[in-house]
Amino acid sequence: MPSTSPTALSTAERTLDVAERLLQVRGFNGFSYADIAAELGVTKASLHYHFPTKAELGDALIARYSSRFADALGTIDRDTTNPRDKLDAYVNIYSEVLRGDRMCLCGMLAAEYETLPHSMAEAITQFFRENEAWLTNVVAQGQADGSLSNGVTPSDASQMLLSGLEGAMLIARTLGGLPRFQSSARRLLEILNP
Amino acid sequence: MPSTSPTALSTAERTLDVAERLLQVRGFNGFSYADIAAELGVTKASLHYHFPTKAELGDALIARYSSRFADALGTIDRDTTNPRDKLDAYVNIYSEVLRGDRMCLCGMLAAEYETLPHSMAEAITQFFRENEAWLTNVVAQGQADGSLSNGVTPSDASQMLLSGLEGAMLIARTLGGLPRFQSSARRLLEILNP
DNA sequence: GTCTATAGGCAGATAGAC
DNA sequence: GTCTATCTGCCTATAGAC
Predict the structure, then answer these.
(1) Is residue B12 domain-resident?
(2) Is residue A167 in some structural domain?
(3) Which of A114, A157, A188 sits opposite B25 (nearest CB)?
(4) What tens digit of pLDDT does each residue of A119-154 get?
């Protein structure tokens, strides 16, 4: 039996859950296998059974995070049609992360970029590319239907939204918190007012 | 004699120079006394003579960085009168940091915030406060003389500029580099077009 | 001020019993 | 899958000679 009840999580999943939070709060170089093990009540050796090296754990964390993010974008596309509503929903993803006192996982890793294994570095870049591609699409839609200003190219707008939101999260954790983040996010979106 | 020639730097200063670069590239948790010692050709013990603990080294790094940043803002105030020129010069400070393949020192530390000694955390918050105070002043001047839009409060504008620029640096190091940063910075400033 | 030497702890990682 | 036990290496930091 891999689990003790229908709702129980495997050790691998619980490891990812704890490691994900530690990574988003303290950074990849700011937590250890010992931290995860203590929180789960298992030994470090058990963790190495599921994730032999920390680089592999990191790869798994980015893969799961990117996958969930992509799912969330898919959900937005299904649930909303108005491009402005899509952007509001996009910002809301970030708000919920910050509400948990966390930084965006890939934003955190972007800071530590130069210290990371190559596979992780590439995966982070890919995460940002995918986000920008989605945002570019939404902005282009909004410009086509007139709901968004066409004073900026969709590509430029998506770059500014992505980096603006990541920066607002970064600073808000040290100064101003969620209210400040949401205020900055609103200002960013106003740029696209027609 | 504290130095061997009029232009020679003390070990303490050279330590700060190397540590500063390592911190801006790899983060506070991403370098060690051994890294600095190897680069300077001295022993770790020598470094501990000048900076007994890493927390004290970190305090000194933030203090020097903040002081230089404040000097740069003072120079801008002396050399330019037009608020738009001041903002351009402000962005240029960031561009030069990124040109050296570095992240803003305090932006990097903002990511590692939760792992830092209290004295460092407080100093980072103070750095951001001072930057925002300066920016708020410049925006207010520009609104008064009509060179900047008054569609946003100076406080909101300064928050968005600071976090937007920090975020643009953060992302540009993994995707797009300096050209992308400068493009995003230009877009941010356009928000203040009258 | 800088060195050698070393302490004490924690990091990531592995071997092998159960 | 999880454990005990252990390895090796690096970390911050200190003592004491020069």
Answers:
(1) no
(2) yes
(3) A114
(4) 999 999 999 999 999 999 999 999 999 999 999 999
